[in-house]
Amino acid sequence: MATTAAAVATRPSPTPPDSHGSASQPSKRPKGRKPADPANTSKAIEDTIAQLERNKEGEREQEQEIDREVRRATRDMSKDLSKIQDPLARIDAVQKKYAELYANMRRTEREHIAAKKRADQLQKEKDASRSELSKTSTVKDKLEKLCRELQKDNKKLKEDNKRLLETETRMRDELHVRLEGMVSDIQEVIDQKEHPDRIPANMEQDELFRHKFKSFIDQYELRELHMQSLLRQKQLEIEFQTARYEQQRRAQEQEVTKSRGLANQVSTFSQTETELRSQLNIYVEKFKQRCPRRPNA
Question: Of 243 and 4, which is predicted with more confidence?
Answer without folding.
Answer: 243
